Amino acid sequence: MFSFLSQRLVSSLPVILAVLILSFLLVRIAPGSPFSSERALDPAAKALLEKKYGLSGSLPEQALRYITSVFQGDLGDSLKFRDRTVLEIIGQSLPRSLLLGSIAFVLSLGLGIPLGAWAAAQNGKPMDSLLNTLALLTLSIPTFVLAPLSVLLFAFYLHLLPPAGWGSLNQIILPAFCLAVPFVGVCARLTRTGLRQTLQSDFIRTARSKGVGESKLVLLHALRPALLPLVAYAGPLAANILTGSLVVEEVFAIPGIGQFFVNGVINRDVFLVSGVVLIYCLLLLFFNLMADWLTALLDPRIRLSS
Amino acid sequence: MKSRATIVGLTLFALIVVAAILGPMISPHEVGEISTRRLSAPTAQNWLGTDLHGRDLLTRLLYGARISLLVGFVGASISLVVGVAYGLVAGYFGGRLDNAMMRLVDILYALPRIVLVIVLISLFDLKLKHALDHSFLAPLAAHARLLLLFVGLGLVEWLTLARIVRAQVLTIKERPFVLSSRLIGQRTPTILFRQILPQILPIIVTYLTLALPAVILEESFLSFLGLGVQAPLASWGTLLADGAALLNPIETPWWLIVFPAAALISTLLLLNLLGDQIQWEKSSR
User: Are B257 and A152 in contact (CB < 8 Å)?
Assistant: First the structure.
């Protein structure tokens, strides 16, 4: 376990470094300056500002300076939201996005697995193809379509839930639901395929011939190996929820990290953009790590440190 | 050999493509035509209503179909070319090269790719426009954003295909016919493209039916955030974003959201069902 973890950390380091440098350079090379958005700034003042924020000198120098400070735990200051450090902004906005994302994550798995198992049990019956079409439908409804439509229906016509905002419990329901729907479909399809394959394998036939009941067969014997592809999908799922969150935060006016990211790109707020990309990257690496660890836990044939 | 469901699906999709090509020509309205009938609900004159500037929604939807489908086709094709070439090379040559190439794919898989595409597109738009303006490709300068979208989305989608193709090539290259073509002295490019490529063609077709909706979806996602196709061009994502911006509790122009959403969802669902069907037929054969 320990060697697996340390191996992973060592191999992740170059990835993190590459992403940081790439995002920093991309924003710096891009036309436009974070300091002169509306009218051109006096060159002397601009030079002073650039010096103050460590953005003077050649690009490699700037990148090196930035990377060094990141590894010392300092992500720099936001250039647009003056007086706030990137760490402060992330510290305030990340928990909101994480809460929203975790609820959506739990919803996707919590609804997707039972629905998929149900479809697999209906093998070939009309209910099965209906569920499959429904799953494909959820895949075809983009979050940014579902979000305005559900605001229209639940907030403006039915007056059941608030249309936007953040802070109270009933303000989370609609965005979390919108964020989760496409992934419910994916999870259901993965469960259905996995379960159906497992139900055809020899050890299931043996268990069945020994007289194990059908529901016990699925829940106790088949489900664990059948969920392996789903666990492998947990990493990409987390990534997709993160990017889906960009839209949901926009539609529901949630001051999460995605909003700051989109604004940061528009404002050329180099430290903010690189900082958020770093956070995204760390989260993804963490989720992939957890997925691999869980896979090994569920499948005794896989050894982590090989 | 093809089932009825596949044929029905392909026909419906062909209808959408024909509507996108012919529709704007038949429509009595111009795409940018502004009128005084602002935010009018569907009438006999404007079948699907009008937007904030009195533009006919149906005409805009048909033009939007052109953009969305074009981005989908080109983006999917780029990912196809890159993915197939990458997988072919990695799988055929194997060894250390294969190792390094697949490690790169692993790394890219771990990145928030769409986020990098956002950074790429929004930051290099003007640069590319400027560069094109001063080259012989000047007529393309107005579409710099579109070109970046093609490339960016193509570069997001190729990873999966590269993995699939490599895995296939690994087994195919050990088969006797590859060995014999090597024995009769065929050159490596000939073996790759004339011997191995035809073998993996069915998989590529399946992949294309799944990549097409994925790219259309990603384009509309970017357009919705205001980072994709830009005015005067409009994709379905742009139209949806315009509609969503007018959402308010007092008087909601529902047609500006419902109709673009219906166009996008039905096209994506059709393509997904089609891909699912083709995949199922292949596995049950």
Answer: yes
Q: How far apart are CA B223 and CA B72, in angstroms?
A: 13
Of A26, A285, A288, the CB nearest to B120: A26
Q: Write the Ramachandran bin of A73: left for phi over 0, alpha for psi from -120 to 50, otherwise beta.
A: left
Nearest residue, CB atoms, A140 vs list B124, B258, B265 = B265
pTM (whole model) above 0.90: no
Q: What is the pLDDT of residue B267?
A: 92
Confidence category of residue A247, pLDDT binned at 50, 70, 90:
confident
Residue type at B60 in one-letter notation:
R
pLDDT top residue among B165 and B136: B165
Contacts of A281 in chain B (CB under 8 A): 110-112
- By C-alpha distance, the chain A residue nearest B120 is A26
Convert the pLDDT of each residue in A37-59 to its tens digit: 566 777 788 788 888 887 888 88
Phi, psi of B50 (to 5 degrees): -130, 165
Q: What is the pLDDT of residues A55-71, one digit of tens each?
A: 888 888 888 888 888 88
Share of chain B above pLDDT 70, in %: 93
CA distance A285 to A17: 13
Phi, psi of B63 (to 5 degrees): -65, -40
- Tell me the C-alpha distance between B245 and B242, whole Å: 5
Chain B contact probe: residue of A8, A9, A140 with most B CBs at under 10 A: A140
ipTM greater than cut 0.85: no
> Of the candidates B199, B240, B184, which has an alpha carbon nearest to the alpha carbon of residue B92?
B199
Asked whether residue A306 carries a pLDDT value surpassing 50, the answer given is: no
Residue A81: other Cβ atoms inside 10 A: 17
Report how far residue A266's alpha carbon sits from residue A249's, in angstroms, rounded to the nearest whole number. Answer: 16
CB B225 within 8 A of CB A247: yes
Number of Cβ within 10 Å of residue A304's Cβ equals 15
Tens-digit pLDDT profile for residues A68-89: 888 888 888 888 787 888 889 9
Whether residue B123 and residue A26 make contact (CB cut-off 8 A), yes or no, is yes
Which 3-state string (H, E, C) describes chain A? Answer: CHHHHHHHHHHHHHHHHHHHHHHHHHHHHCCCCCCCCCCCCCHHHHHHHHHHCCCCCCHHHHHHHHHHHHHCCCCCECCCCCCCEHHHHHHHHHHHHHHHHHHHHHHHHHHHHHHHHHHHHCCCCHHHHHHHHHHHHHHHCCHHHHHHHHHHHHHHHCCCCCCCCCCCCHHHHHHHHHHHHHHHHHHHHHHHHHHHHHHCCHHHHHHHHCCCCHHHHHHHHHHHHHCHHHHHHHHHHHHHHHHHHHHHHHHCCCCCHHHHHHHHHHHCCHHHHHHHHHHHHHHHHHHHHHHHHHHHHHCCCCCCCC
Q: With beta carbons less than 8 A apart as the criterion, state whether B195 and B203 touch.
A: no
Q: What burial letters (b/e) apply to B72-85, b meaning 16+ CB within 10 Å?
A: bbbbbbbbbebbbe
